[in-house]
Amino acid sequence: MHLIETRELTHVYRGSIRALESVNFIAERKARIAVIGPNGAGKSTLFKHFNGILKPTSGGVLVRGEPITKENLREVRKFVGIVFQNPDDQIISPTVEQDIAFGPINLGLDEETVAHRVEEALRLLGIEDLRERAPHHLSGGEKKRVAIAGILAMEPQVLVLDEPTAGLDPQGVEDLVTFINRLPEDYGMTVIFSTHHLDLVAEMADFIYVMDRGKVMGSGTVEEVFARPELLTRAKLDVPPIPRLIRSLQENGVEIEMAYTYRDAEKAFLDAYMRER
């Protein structure tokens, strides 16, 4: 049984705008899944179907093998948490602490459990010092951490992040990538995210869906997708710099192993250098 599955999912907005067309998507337990594509590809619309924010025009969405209904919508939203691209869309309380507590309180949890979850979320995101701050006085990166903390306090099994690195400085991006990569192994969580920064995908994902104009153009592991430059070109995307450089070296006769992350590339270059000595 898949945690999330869409079957021929189609969504048409008013005005006959076809945002999704026959999308088939699967998310397994403890997976790290990237959904990539240009603006208007349908990524955000797809994400909003995962916990019932939007209803399909046709096709279906299954969560733990069951379709989303009015009767199970509350449980679905406990199971699948979504962090929107703009944190201002979901931060509503006067203080950070109150905002993080909002979700657990609405789940009907007792006061002690709510307090424990808030403390744990503050600790996980490293924002204990922000607890009494007013969210509208925070930086964009701080707001994003608060938004993620508010979802994590509800203890979802699937965390969906729409452009999580947008607006973050380099250190903020590095910290967020490290945090996201801990979630599957440390907490058994599945993470689904979209990003325009393809150089980060190999650092953050095990599997990729490539979308354009509401359709899934292709999918596969990082190695499988980045080995298909024609697929990325069709979706108006570029192969990230590291695999593009190494492929160029290989085509010019340099014996070097393919790499997709900085760390793997460093090892590949050192190995190639040592062989040539």
From TrEMBL:
PROSITE patterns: ABC_TRANSPORTER_1, ABC_TRANSPORTER_2. One of its GO terms (biological process) is cobalt ion transport. Gene3D superfamilies: P-loop containing nucleotide triphosphate hydrolases (3.40.50.300). It is found in: Cell membrane. One of its GO terms (cellular component) is ATP-binding cassette (ABC) transporter complex. Residues 4-238 form the ABC transporter domain. Pfam families: ABC_tran. It comes from the Archaea. Its main location: membrane. PANTHER family: ENERGY-COUPLING FACTOR TRANSPORTER ATP-BINDING PROTEIN ECFA1 (PTHR43553:SF24), HEAVY METAL TRANSPORTER (PTHR43553). Belongs to the ABC transporter superfamily. This is ABC transporter ATP-binding protein. The lineage of its organism: Archaea, Methanobacteriati, Methanobacteriota, Stenosarchaea group, Methanomicrobia.
